[in-house]
Amino acid sequence: MFKKILIANRGEIACRVIKTAKLMGIKTVAVYSDADRNALHVKMADEAVHIGPSPANQSYIVIDKIMAAVRQSGAEAVHPGYGFLSENMNFAAALEKEGVVFIGPPSPAIEAMGDKITSKKIAMEAGVSTVPGYMGLIADADEAVKISGQVGYPVMIKASAGGGGKGMRIAWNDAEAREGFQSSKNEAASSFGDDRIFIEKFVTQPRHIEIQVLADKHGNYVYLHERECSIQRRNQKVIEEAPSPFLDEATRKAMGEQACALARAVGYTSAGTVEFIVDGNRNFYFLEMNTRLQVEHPVTELITGVDLVEQMIRVANGEPLSFRQEDLRINGWAMESRLYAEDPYRNFLPSIGRLTRYRPPVEGATETGIVRNDTGVFEGGEISMFYDPMIAKLCTWAPTRTAAIEEMRVALDTFEVEGIGHNLPFCAAVMDHPRFVSGNITTAFIAEEFPDGFQGVSLDAPMLRRVAAASAAMNRVAEIRRTRISGTMDNHQRRVGDDWVVTLQGESHAVRIAADKSGSTVTFPDGESLRVQSDWAPGQSLARLSVDGTPLVLKVGKVPMGFRIRVRGADLKVHVQSPRQAELARLMPEKLPPDTSKFLLCPMPGLVVKINVAEGDEVQEGQALATVEAMKMENILKAERHGVVKAIKATAGASLKVDEVIMEFE
Description:
This protein is 28% helix and 33% strand. The chain contains 17 helices and 40 strands.
């Protein structure tokens, strides 16, 4: 077995590989850029090598710099993780030439399957059903428009070397094809160092289901069942699960066998994933093969008990697989929520900054399942603008899908993240969405169910009452604490009342509290009483309560006369006031937000790539005004209405903060 391996990656996947290597007794080498000098993967590894400036195209995807680190460290093998150089055949070939083992497939298989155009041609020759499209390279935007019209809108414009949702656009007309081609090309060049683009038909109402394959160097091929990855936003997966709630055993077997046949056709070894689009009749079409470990691999590990990183290392070491296809059974159900540094209340735009609080749920067995969190950050660490916005993968397992969803709900409520915008509320909203719970999902789920973006969650009446009762009980605890403050006047004693008004989500509830040593009974005007028990104390940011015998986990912050409560995707200001305070509060005027309609504000911290207009220009609704890049994604800012540009406040190349003014209109 290898004595030392280098991980040519960063973030959570580097940490993930290090964990398994340590369990196997293998020493690890991390590589890091300027931005990652204090990163978690650097701290976890046995040794670390600096490889250059912060931008990935000057560090993590420069083959010569990784090779220098390999030589300096004396590593015998390299695990590429995902992204960066993981599907770069030149990197695999460079390692082979150096006599260093690549923990992945052979370079000819990477060349054949890692390139989407070539892989589709091979799949067609092998008799695999593929999505219609143009498999040749596309020279410019004019040709992209012409081909899109021939294939038939809508079309998917894709980077040949792409992955992780980068370099991908859906176009519904000529204008979007022209714009999408250029953006995809730019993103592909900056993310992968390869700007080749191809176009295929976009299948409407599809499910994205993928098959995990594993092959050794002795001719053994197995599939580890499927993953449902249909919950996507901007072609980027957000929620994954295994198995799929849609497949039957016959379709699962057919897809698995076809995936293995495709892998065998190119002499594939190691772990790989064959992605399919599946329609409503369970017809499946080959999309691409990812010749690497997938981001969502933990859900497969949870339902099969197979450590895929360990198997990749053993296969690279020349060992045969220790199990056969018939040994791989589906055990229970697993869910994965990707925690992104993206602000869901700002249309999921990237959010960077310092993690002032980062407290994931406790990993391991729970009373009803398992919680796992693959992460690459820590409290006090910084989320950089230079890399992918994903900072953790929260996974749960339970015997059934319903139970796995409930495990995820509790885990999301327990996960504390402060200092940056993040998508935990959105993931929680998906877990409670009736359509997701039913399993009736497609890749259009987010676009269809959240057409205007994410505006937060409104709790239903029963849940609202539970939160109101919990807030009233917590407020009583806080009030009692306040009566015990030292240094008060001797002739004054503060009494905690029994009657309170709880205001939340636009509703007010007059309640009466009867407390005893074990908890509080909160009674509403209609006579309903809820029993609240908890060991919460003022100042604690997480409250674990029992409301009428049912667990409830709340994230708690202090606001004047109440709390900021976050639960199940809802973000609530809860005011708990005496009846007189509530009466007076109703007389207070409502504060209106400032009018920013005459300004184009930078929606996220980022770099201004281009200003499309000049002072004095007349602009129309939908016209591109500026392009801002953050976390490897280009964001084109468009005019919301007709107007005239009064002043340009920013220039190309400028680094802007969120809400900084880019231009002003008359």
